[in-house]
Amino acid sequence: MLKSSTSSRGLFIVLEGLDGSGKTSIALALVDKLNSLGFKALYTYEPYDSPVVRIVKNEYSDIRDAYIDALTYALDRLIHWRKIIEPALREKSIVVSDRYFYSSVAYQTASGAPYEWVLEVNKHAPRPDLAIYLDVEPERGLERKRGLTSRFPEYERLDFLVKVREVYLRMVREGLLTLVDSNRGLSEVFDDVWNTVRRLLP
Fold it and tell me: Is the CB of residue 25 less than 8 Å from the CB of residue 186?
């Protein structure tokens, strides 16, 4: 999703995708590039890991489901916005977030919650100026992550990731996300992302 920036605040950019899509590497490289050009850029990520997330994961693991997770991450997201993103935007920084509410829509929908309901739960989340989906084949993403520790190993199953990708592609079709092919080398992917981002820059 692409929105016009305003002169009253900074820019909010989101990178989305399956693990192994390169989104963290691209996000960090984007922040480095922006800072090197004289912009004030900040990297952040979701889940923000507020105490809310830790409590639900540790104390209620026996009853966790797609609905509880969606509500938990929606609250975590609002805390993230209030504590990190909104203050940085007021200082006219460019905030680059590694995941945002689109991840909840993709992962919790694939886990069994209704697509429209997860969107409704996240209607409080302000829309970014640009949201890019780095599309990678699930098999390729898993291969890239082989041997690395995952924060959410319960999601690293091929059949599940196929469903997650389908939801992401639905959001692309509905105009919520801008697709960049991430099956290629990192430098090629970054070039495409940069060419999209720089159109927003003053």
Answer: yes
